[in-house]
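Our consortium's second objective concerns turning raw sequence data into structural hypotheses that experimental partners can test. To show how far this objective has progressed, the report includes one record in full. It was chosen at random from the queue rather than selected for favorable results. The single chain below, 478 residues long, was entered without modification.
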Amino acid sequence: MEDGNLRISNDSFEYPSNIEAEQALLGTLLLNNDSFDRIREIINEDHFFDPVHSKIFELISSKIQKNSLASPVSLKPFFDNDKSLDDLGGASYLVKLASSAISLSGAEDYAKIIFDMAIRRQLILLGGEMIDKAAKINLEEDGNQQIADAEKSLYDLAEIGQNKGRTFSLFVKAAAKAVETANFAYKKGGGTSGLPTQFIDLDKKLGGLHPSDLIILAGRPSMGKTSLATNIAFNAAKEMMKKTGSKSTVGFFSLEMSSEQLATRILSESCEIASEQIRKGDLKEDEFKRFVESAQELESMPLFIDDTPALTISELASRARRLKRTDGLDLLIIDYLQLVRGSSFKDNRVNEISEITQGLKAIAKDLNIPVLALSQLSRQVENRDDKKPQLADLRESGSIEQDADVVLFIFREEYYKEREKPGDYDLEAIAKWQSEMSELHGKAEVIIGKQRHGPIGTIELSFEGKYTRFGNLAKNYY
């Protein structure tokens, strides 16, 4: 302790390492180049503690990948004038490594030991960086932001093992994954290879919600964006539980509504009691019993709600990573995009939205999950005779449209027609209006404005306002 500040000296401990494992691995590779194929996805030269061992491994790797022989003899010329080997005995050290190799089959085990030591050293360095950063007072970065940055660094470190060698991928590997996805959809009867929404026509058009996709669900106020999002969350978790026997974890960031309000909507849909009645407590005895039973049935539903307001995109990403790590995560929903804040001050809102949409797309790819983000539409929709939304109606539309894989619009013409009711004195107009309202009642449209992997078009759904519930519209071919 010095001047009230904590000081940690790196001299107080030794960095974790296993020199013997490094020597054993290098010796094994020099005797049997074929062993390289078993460890090439586990480690690289940066994972070695001894810089000389790192250089030797880099040369072995380079030789083997060029289909050349890597042996003490072929590597010797590279070290004849290199003083880095002098302390170890010169170029003869290569012969010593090869002759001391214990087991030609232990390469993978040695590599895992070396990798583990490297991760431990990285943790020590990361801890030191966190201490240094926390000790400095930065007006542009508060403690919460530093926590978010630290969690991201820890998550990235944890992912290293899964992403090693993940640069270019052979086409045959990518093709195998594509066949696996198609086979999964085929076994399910066709039509859906992603996470199902249980909306038949929507699943047919989209093939379900796919990992790494950013899906934007946009609409004007009162169109039912949140209702549709909660329906999708509930349906996806329930459907996957029924078909696979495993729970699909859904994370829901509700930046506008409280968790209690969101839960009320889901319970209203489940027990078929108007959410207004639930809020007021205006329930009959049998309705209250049904409400409690629905709540008990949904207790095991893996839906996690975070209603913290005004989250930054980095905090949101950090919490999503934490949920993925602790409980798993199959679908992430954000309600809604314009309430998320940028990580730092931006000179204008368009740049801030661009940072947010890029951050959401990064979450989808990093966590390999579909991310469904709700978005408001601009007021210009109200100024047109045709109120159906278009891509240009997205607020700060450039980055949203560019970064999204799928853009969906929710539209209920009934909402607008209801506000066009003529005066009671005009009987002919009233009769026409009533006929049109009857035709539109309980119907909603989901317009696919953009889809990278499939067609665009319009899907018709049913809508029950009192239960805030969307459903499949009855059609002859159903």
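The partners drew two points from this record. Residues 1-10, 162-175 have pLDDT under 50 and may be disordered. The first strand starts at residue 214 and ends at 219. Both points have been shared with the crystallography group to help prioritize constructs.
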